[in-house]
Design brief:
8-stranded mixed sheet; 26 helices; hydrolase; about 725 residues; Alpha-Beta Plaits; about 20% strand; REXO5 exonuclease; about 35% helix; REXO1/3/4-like; RNA binding; exonuclease activity; 6-stranded mixed sheet
């Protein structure tokens, strides 16, 4: 049974602030594994990294965690799927820092292309015995029959095999004659489109040993085309409209064209034969012939340039030309057979690939566009790097990252906008291209018109004001001579109090209490409303303002937030209790994973509350029943489900202590009508959340998905960013 990748992270309480370097650390390891000195991140762990299907980074341009909590109810998908969240330090140039800002690429000399015979350009390996080609074939020249795949190799690499259960109905070429070293070679390549049936052949080419094209036909698929994949296949709907040729016609023609001792040559030929639904006993696969370490494969485009000095699959052309690809694969096989393994190994292809990829990144940074990096000139020798950027490392391993969005980088690393692209267009492109890439960065944006209309300072003040209201409760009425100290003591049992003031504008005195954590305010409303405090039966309620009308909905959604799953809040602790004391007291609770004891970030003293995180949600439910009324060191505990246990706790503290609105909001404050622009913005955010949901659902299982709110960092305003991450499991939810 195939293993599933899993992610664990210590992002509880105060350990949830992640630097750019730490984020880079995660993405590098997820994409590269142990290659290129990539190591497990210091702040989280990916289990079974090699089983990851891919990495997708979704960047919500010009948005911060302020936006996430301002539009918390609209981000329905994000808060229900991603259990791991972290705070990001703001950056003035987020995309450049993600791609490796500061990488010191200094090309020395350039050449128009890579050649296959120059020993001066790339040094020969000092020990050819270590080369995977030599280890596989030895150094001596051999005939072509030494390089045809054995039956076991065909089975291992998913070639259609005669008599195999999965090949029922496949057509056998009947080329059963004994092969010799003089048997004829034929190059074969197909282009496929995605149909309701799967991958179906839409273009077939066959070339002979002299490179002459024997067959070059368009094919009408059996079922409806779902995706033409025009950028790769070169096929359009218009091209297939007049086509009458069917797969059965191609099968018949191929059987007639191939002599009984024919050897088929192709690059990853198994995919072509599977699509053709044909079985052929003798094949040379150039993706396996030019062997690499750890099962990796060179791309046909690279081999054609490095070995043959030919440019194929050019960006200017619409899709691949199967005749060109078939001819390239054939010539590569002929070169290998004629020159022998030793000569091929001396080309030092791994070094050539490293050189090409680094040169590509260096020379394309001025025009790095979302659709990906384009191959241009190559370096004469590897550049000197002071700090390899992330894209460099990706491309060195042959992974061509997909970059989609409204932004691109200019040569200085500064971001420039491409406003002609909408979120809908980006989504459509992502749905098509993300499955074809192992590393993707998708950028969405609310657009400059929305960012400008809702400046960060104004947005910050709205969120801060609402947060203050949610942390505040009003209690009363009390007698004129009531004891304020008794009130503070009773309400303090619900959690740490930031401020307590007497409201004298009313007929009888009330008390306004602002807590430091949301759970404390909610606990006070739930446990003390209708209770007798300081000799009076009181009512406990939150402020009534326009912004607070959806408070109950917000509290309920926070309880259901996946980040708070299995976490409970406990109040009423004596401040003399240490973390060790609490761990001992709570040790009998089943499946307790972590205890977080909040501290005052200025004095360093811990608060009279804590958060308990359990391995299983049902264990948290059981603990909640036990803890209510539990006495620890003479102190009676109060507990409830957590509302802000993770990185939100720290963010609330920062917002609370930077509160510029000292007066807060008074009871029955004027209810402002929600402006049309804000209503429109909420709809926009909701649509954005839907786009992410649609993209996320399209991802393969075992894909690491990271959603980033980059934050804002300018001379006028600064807001921290937010990251959400998880590995998609079979159920569509992020796995732990």
């Amino acid at each position: 049974q195939e293993k599933s990748s899993r992610l664990s992270a210590a992002l509880f309480g105060e350990d949830c602030e992640i630097s750019r370097d730490q984020l880079y650390e995660l993405l590098k390891y997820a994409a590269l594994g142990k290659c290129h000195n990539a190591t497990q991140p210091s702040w989280c762990r990916i289990y079974h990294q090699s089983h990851l299907a891919g990495v997708v980074v979704i960047v919500l341009h010009e948005m911060s965690q302020l936006h996430f909590y301002k539009f918390y109810l609209q981000f329905k998908h994000l808060r229900k799927v991603f259990r791991h969240r972290f705070t990001l330090a703001p950056s003035a140039n987020f995309l450049a820092s993600l791609y490796g800002e500061g990488a010191n690429l200094k090309p020395q000399n350039t050449a128009q292309g890579l050649t296959s015979t120059s020993s001066e350009r790339v040094p020969k390996s000092s020990n050819l015995q270590c080369d995977p080609i030599i280890r596989k074939y030895g150094e001596k020249k051999r005939g072509l029959t030494s390089y045809t795949l054995t039956l076991e190799e065909q089975k291992k690499n998913d070639y259609p095999i005669k008599g195999s259960p999965g090949c029922k109905g496949y057509v056998y070429t009947e080329c059963d004659q004994q092969r010799t070293d003089s048997s004829p070679l034929f190059g074969l390549d197909c282009e496929m489109c995605l149909t309701e049936k799967g991958n179906e052949v839409t273009h077939v080419s066959l070339v002979d040993a002299q490179g002459q094209c024997l067959l070059n036909e368009l094919v009408k698929p059996e079922t409806t085309v779902v995706n033409y994949r025009t950028r790769f296949s070169g096929i359009t709907k218009k091209m297939l409209l007049p086509v009458k040729t069917r797969l059965s016609d191609i099968q018949t023609r191929l059987k007639k064209l191939l002599p009984h001792d024919a050897v088929l040559v192709g690059h990853s030929l198994n995919a072509d034969l599977q699509a053709l639904e044909m079985i052929h006993p003798s094949v040379i696969d150039t993706s396996l012939l030019f062997a690499r370490n750890e099962g990796r494969r060179f791309k046909l485009k690279f081999l054609a340039k490095a070995v043959l000095g030919k440019e194929i699959q050019c960006e200017q052309k619409l899709g691949h030309d199967p005749a060109e690809d078939a001819r390239a694969a054939l010539e590569l096989a002929q070169f290998f057979i004629e020159q022998g393994p030793a000569k091929v190994a001396e080309l030092n292809l791994e070094m050539l690939l490293t050189t090409e990829r680094l040169a590509e990144v260096s020379q394309n940074k001025a025009s790095l566009q979302p659709k990906g990096c384009r191959v241009q000139k190559q370096l004469n020798e590897p550049p000197r790097l002071s700090k390899p950027c992330f894209l460099d490392c990706l491309q060195v391993t042959g992974q061509k990252p997909l970059l989609l969005g409204r932004q691109e980088l200019d040569s200085s690393g500064m971001c420039q906008s491409n406003l002609s692209t909408s979120n809908k267009q980006i989504l459509q492109r992502a749905l098509e291209d993300v499955p074809l890439s192992t590393f993707s960065v998708i950028q969405f944006s609310l657009g400059p018109e929305y960012i400008a209309a809702h400046c960060l300072a104004g947005l910050c003040e709205k969120v801060r004001s609402k947060l203050t209201d949610m942390l505040t409760i009003y209690a009363g009425p009390f007698e004129d001579s009531f004891c304020l100290k008794s009130v503070k003591k009773e309400f303090g049992k619900c959690g740490p109090i930031q401020s307590l003031t007497v409201v004298t504008e009313t007929h009888q005195p009330y008390v306004s209490i602002q807590y430091e954590v949301l759970e404390a305010a909610q606990l006070a409303v739930e446990s003390l409303n209708g209770a007798e405090v300081a000799g009076s039966c009181i009512k406990v309620q939150r402020p009534v303002t326009a912004a607070m009308l959806d408070c109950d909905v917000l509290i309920r959604e926070l309880e259901l937030d996946v980040e708070n799953e299995g976490v409970i809040y406990v109040a009423g602790l004596k401040k003399s209790l240490t973390e060790t004391d609490l761990e001992e007291e709570f040790s009998q609770l089943k499946d307790l994973e972590t205890l977080f004891l909040p501290k005052d970030r200025q004095s360093g003293k811990h608060r009279n509350c804590c958060f308990l995180k359990f391995q299983k949600p049902q264990s948290a439910v059981a603990a909640l029943e036990l803890l209510n009324g539990w006495t620890v060191k003479g102190s009676k505990l109060r507990s409830r489900n957590a509302l802000a246990s993770g990185h939100l706790w720290r963010w609330i503290w920062l917002m609370n202590h930077s509160n510029r609105n000292q007066g807060g909001n008074i009871l029955h404050g004027k209810m402002e009508q929600l402006s049309d622009s804000e209503q429109d913005l909420r709809k926009k955010v909701k649509k954005l959340d839907h786009h992410i949901k649609k993209l996320y659902r399209s991802l393969q299982s075992n894909t690491l998905c990271v959603v980033l709110f980059p934050g804002a960092n300018s001379t006028n305003e600064s807001q921290a960013g937010l990251g959400l991450m998880g590995i998609k499991d079979d159920g569509g939810r992020s796995a732990c």
